[in-house]
Predict the 3D structure of the following.
Amino acid sequence: MKLASKLAISGLFLSMGAAGAAAAGDLTTESFTKKAALGGMTEVELGKLAQEKAENPQVKDFGEMMAEDHGATNEKLKELADSEGWTLPTTLDSEHKSDIEELAGKKGSEFDRAYIDLMVEDHKKDVELFEQASASDSVDESVQQFAAETLPTLQKHLSTVEEIDSNL
């Protein structure tokens, strides 16, 4: 199945299947942290892939920003989880792995377009998820704070990738 179709069908937070789950009203501390961890790990891997495979310098730079920013966010989430005694996924599930594999099969401008399209959709979902988590009574207060602190970075990512998208 094509990556764009998978996104439309599954509502991935590419990473994170989350916007759909959150909209359904079942956002919990556990569901949010799992989606955030899987999404963050995926963003790092895709960012590294973009640094290697992208043709457009803006896309390469965006990939670098994704790997760095999501790597740092992943560490903060891991520290939070460790302090609270929560378990986070440490490896990607098959769905996220297949998304990475599909992009890995592309190169040059075809890769650039697919990656940027995915990042626009992903970051729209990320922003929605993190907004919901930061305001949700069903999410632990420390997770609400983490989501609120992370949200400006995700909004910056969305703005940046939308600008790149308009220039491709």
